[in-house]
């Protein structure tokens, strides 16, 4: 089969991919994207591909007569998450998988590092290495609120949320989750849309892992942010557009104990002078939650694992658009 | 019995202590210390005390004819950890307990927050919210090294180390511990002085939780710091004097991948202009690892739990100087 690759891979990862091909052929985009998040561009060679690895252009997918499987190189699938695209791949019998398992652990680690840094007041502590006694010191210590016994709500509960629950286990926290379609096998209490209102009001920590889609855009609006209790902490490692940033700013003004930790914003990066960048209780990292040493290798390892499954006609990992007729490999 | 208190307690914690006295009497120092770490001063009233809560003056202890139990209000017992004092309390039949269980969890959280912040490169990420693509961004992501599969050596393994091991469980790390007296029931591989040399060379993360005592002073000298492998990370939440800071500075010069996270230094705070404060790979917090919201309440709860045991002649928690004749309560 022919595998079309549309993003740049470091030498080592490319060699690893080649070694795992077992007779399949690699096709390269004429204009490879510099990162796994970049959009692939329409390219003549694409028409030859049986498998697309990267972020193929939806129009190319529509035109292709050979394509049987798209392996998206990110966790987010915004570009493909439309009723029209879903119908298209159903009709053409194209499977769609994403790279959720490549980034899960690093994402969970990132938001967990946010939670612990908040609990231990790391930004304040690191900025003030000088005091070691006196009232300011006592107040600082008293401001370190242990996670033990606190509550957390995970919005957009999925593979990242699942890992986060494992990491939080030693803290005996009260954990609730929210997701579009509850599967029933989640190891925590899941809430529906009604339950979400109460859960937002109860949680000390609200973790947003929502993907960007028409149904999640602006999900954290003034109403939902307003339901959160005073002194709550909000985290976003999902996508920036799921939060109404004006409402978020308003929340800072209304609640002096409110904190937010954002790895994603809208747009990215936030322009200089954006008020969120000067809000002292808003901590921002530049969309690095899923990043980790050896990321490209993890990505290729994950793809090759799925390639073996695809060859054998087995269920693929991280399948985000399964075929409704039950056919797995075309 | 008469309980002598030599440090200042917030109203709520004092009320909680009074409510738990059950007929015992409180004596107050004429010059209460402002923090639980401050040294108590010699005071006439002390001679009346059966129990000392705080940091009593060793000379007062020597003079006392009534004292049966000292409950030290910190984890560190440097002031008392001498052969002469140990002999004195043995001879007089005075039990000594510390407050290890008050600070364990917060201390473990603090060093764990250091480890995750290092793994996720939080200081660099928070300082650079602007980039969200390009080479610097890719390099940043690649610099995030997951804890999974890495190794950690805990030097001064005790109750804090034990908790840290629980927190690290989801990462499948290789963990080794070192302590003065190995008990044999530690859940991790323990090394002796010879094994320590190898363990220092193998660990990606070296966590120092050593207390300050004549035998630990300057423990991390040039030789031991030099044994650590290139690119290792060093953490200190024990005591500042256990590290030779000149040797630490030299290590930064020799190894461009070396990082250190210090909650304790010598002296505290480090004077302005001290070279460790301007070393960009050295992160310092101002001795706050054990601090947490409700700290005084946790301390009194712990003391009262021990008071009940003392009344019943049971073994005390966190007993650091048990009586060798086996007698528990005088």
Write the layout of secondary structure elements.
Two copies of one chain form a homodimer.
Chain A: E1 2-7, H1 11-19, E2 25-33, E3 51-54, H2 58-63, E4 69-72, H3 83-92, E5 95-97, H4 100-119, H5 122-127, H6 134-142, E6 151-155, H7 159-168, E7 174-178, E8 189-190, H8 193-202, E9 205-208, H9 222-227, E10 233-236, H10 245-254, E11 259-262, H11 275-278, E12 282-284, H12 295-312, E13 319-321
Parallel strand pairs in A: 1-2, 1-3, 3-4, 4-5, 6-7, 6-9, 7-8, 9-10, 10-11, 11-12
Antiparallel strand pairs in A: 5-13
Helix pairs in contact in A: 1-12, 4-7
Structure description:
2 copies of one chain form a homodimer. Chain A has helices spanning 11-19, 58-63, 83-92, 100-119, 122-127, 134-142, 159-168, 193-202, 222-227, 245-254, 275-278, 295-312; strands spanning 2-7, 25-33, 51-54, 69-72, 95-97, 151-155, 174-178, 189-190, 205-208, 233-236, 259-262, 282-284, 319-321. Chain A is an alpha/beta fold and 330 residues long. Chain A has 2 domains: 2-98 and 293-321, NAD(P)-binding Rossmann-like Domain (Rossmann fold, 3-Layer(aba) Sandwich); 104-284, Rossmann fold (3-Layer(aba) Sandwich), CATH 3.40.50.720. A 7-stranded parallel beta sheet of chain A has the order 8-7-6-9-10-11-12, with helices on both faces. In chain A, strands 2-1-3-4-5-13 form a 6-stranded mixed beta sheet. In chain A, helix 11 (275-278) links the parallel strand 11 (259-262) and strand 12 (282-284). The longest helix of chain A is centred in the N-terminal third of the chain and has 20 residues, at 100-119. Chain A is elongated. At the A-B interface, helix 4, helix 5, helix 6 and helix 7 of A face helix 4, helix 5, helix 6 and helix 7 of B.
